[in-house]
Amino acid sequence: QVQVVESGGGLVQTGGSLRLSCVVSGGSFSIGAVGWFRQGPGQEREFVAGVQWRSASTLVSDSVKGRFTISREYAKNTAYLQMSMMKPEDTAVYYCATRRAFRPSDLTGRYDYWGQGTQVTVSS
After folding, report:
1. What is the largest CA-CA distance in the chain?
2. Could you read off the pLDDT of 17-61 as tens digits, one per residue?
3. CB 79 within 8 A of CB 71
4. Which residues are 38's β-sheet partners?
């Protein structure tokens, strides 16, 4: 059974940084891509960034481009989301998801497995 586990959330001040981790484990699942999404209070879940597992090529939302960076550590089945210059509007539950297809997608329905999410709060 495939498990996706996020960690690293917490409280940070405006302008601060935080790094989220996502570990994918279990079964014979072969990671094609990993994506990070977030869902703020009363909002829909939105795409943040994604990484193609084999090539490490990335896809980043315009809303966080230049502030957030996604990367992966292939041998550890772990993806990271490095967040910097954070703003109060970045406050959300951040979710990690994985899919067998090679390219990351900005659509929630394209992912096969999801984590439970980790809360990130940016204070003003």
Report:
1. 44
2. 999 999 999 878 899 999 999 999 999 999 999 999 999 999 999
3. yes
4. 46, 94
